[in-house]
Amino acid sequence: MSVRSKVIEAIQQIAKEQQVKLPALTDDLSLHETGFDSLAFAILVARLEDETGVDPFTISEDAAFPATVGDFVRAYENVPA
Amino acid sequence: MSPREVFALRDHLGAELKGRTLSDAHDVVSLTDVLSQTVLGGRLRELSGRAVLLKLSDQLRSGLAMIELDGIARRMLLCPPDLNPAHLDAVIADAGIDAVVSDEPDRWADAGVSLVVTAQLPLQATTPAKTERATEWLMLTSGTSGVPKIVGHTLEALTGAIVAEGPAKGPAPVWATFYDIRRYGGLQIFLRAILSGGSMVLSDPHEALADHVARLNARGVSHISGTPSHWRKLLMSGSAAQFAPGYVRLSGEIADQAVLDGLKAAFPSSSVGHAYASTEAGVGFAVNDGLEGFPADYLGNRNGVEMKVVDGSLRIRSTRTAHAYIGRNAAALTDGDGFVDSGDIVELRGDRYYFVGRRGGIINIGGLKVHPEEIEAAINRHPDVRMSRAKSRRSPITGGIVVADVILAEGTDPARAKEIRDQILDQCRAQLASHKVPAVIRFVEALDVTPAGKLARTDA
Questions:
Q1: What would you report as the CA-atom Rg of chain A, rounded to the nearest whole angstrom?
Q2: Chain A residue with Cα closest to B367
Q3: Pairwise CA distance, residues B275 & B364, whole Å
Q4: Residues B70 and B76: beta-carbon distance below 8 Å
């Protein structure tokens, strides 16, 4: 499964659990517009860390938290191996 | 006014009751004949009036030495097997120890303690001793870090709850416990066995659970106690089916509804009760209605035990509490009114109080305080869950999130893991505030339990 589809699937799973109604997950959708609160993002980052072995927001000091869904996915895609 | 008569353990033993024994995995000792025998090589007189450290590698000789020393030594410090050796010197200094009972006398040759007595089996014949004084019993708290605190008790305080309950009906009980008798929970059971006229079967840390259960059966154990973690391990082991004790007791950790129901199902003909006690606060109460928590009307003065809730934590005043922390810089054990703050946080729901966790065990989730035990209780309600541990994990977003490690009941189909995970999360969302719902659930094969029988909480 591609990194992108792992990320999207995790977002959808958490939205279901948190009863958040997601808009279409396009790359330029701002994370704010997903309806996720900070707890939902914290869950997302923790689960993706377990699944992919990386937490791009902790390992890189200069990583600003992404603004859009596309930025968020790329943060996982661009992690150096 | 004549001095009050002092009772020691020996005064609860005698040759009238036949067939009483104290046993471990290797030896069986007759309690009926124990007063005319010695585990101290006949050197009890030398220990009269001394402050004695009991530092033995096994519980059997420790128990026999307690019987001999109580009423003779001035103080007796029970050293649990898991005491960090680095803390021994501080404990010896704080307790003013001037004699050691050991099974490794060579190790004490240069230790600066003037008198070293070797405890040995088999027992040797001796002249029965007479009680001289009320010996002070010193126990160590089971905290995970730092030098343990020394807690001072008397036999009268230690046995207050046992005496209040009165003698057991029916045949003399055969007690057992998963605890070590050099800890408060285990000592309570040892004292029950002595005072009840019964026998006791000791645990052995090196014995497999199935072998332990076989031994409990062979010795006819009728009454048995352990922490909820001990009991969950037994339920998971598959060994419970061969065992049918009359009385099953839980203490030392929160007994949640899941473990109470699990024990009731595993032992349908047993009474299952949970007791509240701590090294400092003594035995508070027992709950025998099969439900978690305790009735709200236990607060106030009940059978000489006064309880109140202040700032969320249970406070206890009774003649069963310890009387002091011992040592040069020891803190006060009670407040100005004589109440011990248990540090156990309770919550009133309806007409019952529920334990939600330890004050010192709070984890911080995004700035909110969370008791891991409350989350574990919600997870454990799932019928396929046997045991769980909640803890915090750092999060770059909120600072911290809850994660949980879960052991599934034996025989659960691994293919159902995702379905069970979703059900646990649904259940937690229905019962807990959103920040307490685990962000991540991992299924694990085992969870660490401390030597004191409690779930290991390394992050708390």
A1: 12
A2: A39
A3: 29
A4: yes
Query: What's the pLDDT score for residue A11?
Result: 95
Q: Which among B289, B180, B176 is positioned nearest to B223, based on CA atoms?
A: B176
The secondary element (H helix, E strand) that includes residue B390 is strand B385-395
Work out the pLDDT band at B119, boundaries 50, 70, 90. Answer: very high
- Going by the DSSP 8-state scheme, the letter that residue B145 receives in this structure is S
B9-349 maps to CATH 3.40.50.12780 = yes
Q: Residue A53 carries which side chain, given as an amino acid letter?
A: G
Q: What is the ipTM of this complex?
A: 0.85
B9-349 and B362-443 in the same fold: no
Give the total residue count for chain B. 460
The model's pTM is 0.88
- From chain B, the residues in CB contact with A38 under 8 A are 366, 397-398
Domains, chain A, with CATH or none? 3-77 (1.10.1200)
Q: List CB contacts (< 8 A) between A65 and chain B.
A: 396-397
Residue pair B13/B30 in contact (Cβ under 8 Å)? The answer is no
In DSSP notation, B210-241 reads: HHHHHHHHHTT--EEEE-HHHHHHHHHHT-GG
In this structure, the number of other CB atoms found within 10 A of the CB of residue B364 comes to 11
**Phi, psi at B250, each rounded to 5°:** -120, 140
Q: Which of A31, A37, A45, A57 to mutate to test the interface with B (most CBs of B within 10 A)?
A: A45
Question: pLDDT tens for residues B47-65?
Answer: 999 999 999 999 999 999 9
Q: Which amino acid is at B428?
A: C
Answer for the pair B72, B119: CB distance below 8 angstroms, yes or no: no
Name chain A contacts of B395, Cβ cutoff 8 Å.
42, 45-46
List the domain boundaries for chain B. Answer: 9-349, 362-443
CATH number of B362-443: 3.30.300.30
Per the CB < 8 Å rule, is A47 touching B440? yes
Pairs of CB atoms within 8 A across A/B = 43
Q: Are A35 and A22 in contact (CB under 8 A)?
A: yes
Cβ-based contacts of B425 with chain A (< 8 Å): 17
3-state helix, strand, coil split of chain A in percent (to 5) is 60, 0, 40
